[in-house]
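Hi, can you check this record?
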Amino acid sequence: MKKLMVTMFTAFALAGSAHADVSKVNTCVVADPTGTPLNVRNRPNGTILGALHNDTRVIILDAALVSGKVWSKIVPVEAGKVGWVFSSFLDCA
């Protein structure tokens, strides 16, 4: 229930205004230590939809634990498709 509430809050915050203040939602930055773009997938371990470069700001919409690893459902702040990334490659500090 808590996860659903966070997801609903984030969706409401984004839909509420064309000028939503992204500092009030959970934003992170891509920080892939491999130096390659971070794959964005249709679901955890799913088909690759695209990739994001380091320092790209994203909004976390949801999270899932799959085979002991945390995945985040994200949308880039500037523009892009919603998808799933491996959470260890995000800096949310």
